[in-house]
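Dear Dr. K.,

Following up on our conversation at the group meeting, I've run the structure prediction for UDP-glycosyltransferase 87A1-like protein from Cinnamomum micranthum f. kanehirae. I'm pasting the input sequence below exactly as I used it, so you can double-check it against your construct before we proceed with anything downstream. Let me know if the numbering doesn't match what you have in your notebook.
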Amino acid sequence: MDTTSAVHVVALPYPGRGHINPMMNLCKLLSSSDENLLITFVVTEEWLGFIGSAPTPPNIRLLSIPNVIPSELVRGADFQGSSRPCVRRWRNRLSGCWNGLSRM
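The predicted structure tokens came back this morning:
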């Protein structure tokens, strides 16, 4: 893939069940439509562990950020309480991600 002429899309799904898989499916559809489309799929470290071994097209790359909400495996017990602090932590974690993407 010639990355000098590629369009770069950053996919940033909410790190929860029901959001990751549909967004990845959309990214796979987009990637199959144009080989010059580069997609960076941003997930938390926990989710990278869940999906990191699944095959992805060569123009989709995974990028992980530190976990920003409690584990997917336990947060259902107090979803509202566990997701409120997410927005602030999400913004803080993503600031470094954006800086890295701007250099690509």
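Two things stood out to me. The beta strands are 7-11, 37-44, 60-65. The first helix runs from residue 20 to 33.

Best regards,
J.T.
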